[in-house]
Request: fold
Amino acid sequence: MNYVLTNFDHVFDLGVTLLERTLFFKLWGMPLIVLWLMAGSVYLTLRMGFINVRGLGHGLAVLRGDYDDPDEVGEVNHFQALATAMSATVGLGNIAGVAIAIQLGGPGAVFWMTVAGLLGMTTKFTECTLAQQYRVVQDGQVLGGPMYYLSQGLAERGLKPMGQLLAVTFAILCMVGALGGGNMFQANQSAIAVAALAEQLHWGWLSDPRVYGVALALAVAAVILGGLQRIAQVASAIVPTMVGLYLTAALWIVFHHLGDIPAALAQIWHSAWHPVAIEGGIVGVMVQGLQRGVFSNGAGTGAAAIAHATTKNPEPVREGLVALVEPLIDTVLICNLTALVCLLTGVYQPGSIVNGIKLTATAFASEVPIMTWGLAIIVCLFSFSTIISCFYYGEACWRYLLGERGLLTYKLLYILGSFGGTVIGLETVIRFSDIMVFALGIPNMLGLLLLSNQVARSLEKYWQVKPQPVSLQSPS
Reply:
């Protein structure tokens, strides 16, 4: 068994290396795909008139349910769509990903993660607005996402062949990406957290990642066979609870170090512009921060648009305003709190070995002993919610390409990926996850830029006649 796993790990690493050399090129030390996504986010933020700032209040009102109408076409409400989308982003990217960014790029990487989050708010707005506008209803099921707005939206602009090519490319990459960043990375990091807890408790049987891998795969299989509504129900129950517990513990630590916060923030700011002993200097810090930021919130990759397309909502722009809340919570709030915990507790030390979740777990446990257990549970539930939500993204892309044909095969591969992620080395999983997540941004961001004028016009019209909440509307 060990021989098979070792050889599988070796072959997988060779495949990832080939993909990395093919998809990632660097300009001035910065991967072109990172420059592409960030440049696109900057343009969209300017083109939409900083909607990430001026539309935030209205987006929160919609999220509260002020505009919900249960009679509208769709499968889930705004909150369930947001929970499903956030369950695919709020997770180990915010816990392990922040630790990895700090260890590879220093504290300054957190600043660039925040920049990626703020700009990503507009990108999420754009892609989720388009997803609502071009969604379709087939056999009573609401379908949408980049596959549809790339093919239909660009066809309306006389670019049908390009739109079809981009849609198919996105669908293929998303199916594979769900297996990587959405599945294997989450399984890998949660397995490490469980193994660390088992070691402290002297539970030798649980420290074997294969034991956890089998249990995780069975749990994933039990949920993904239930379809979108079951996934949304599980996500809407897990995400708020886990985010609440995690933020409570993080804020407890931060409040106990209030006097040290200015120094920690100064360290982040100074390290962002004057890194010490970081490979690549300031560019290296930016790369780590921006990469982990995009990986954390998924802005520009288009995956969240698949979930937001299914909401009961007659106004595409309104759903976009809900979606822009995601990066704010995901990257700007949660990632910064995680970074502060790592810095304020003194657990982070320059030059430490990259081990992701162990750094964060040690930081929390040093101040809140119960988090030795608590963080392991939170990590497992975070990873589980991300895995099941990303499956829906991959499944939607499979249906777009092949319909129901062979769907069971994809489900089995996905379940196997949950197990495989627990036994493959961390470095290889991180590289594969980054490649797949960022590759999605190539066709999706191109489509967003080509369709940005259409979204800007829709936003202007919506803002001029912004509807009243349902509770204030006159009865018909």
Q: What stands out?
A: The beta strands are 26-27, 30-31, 136-138, 141-143. The chain is about 75% helix and 0% strand. The chain has one domain: 53-459.
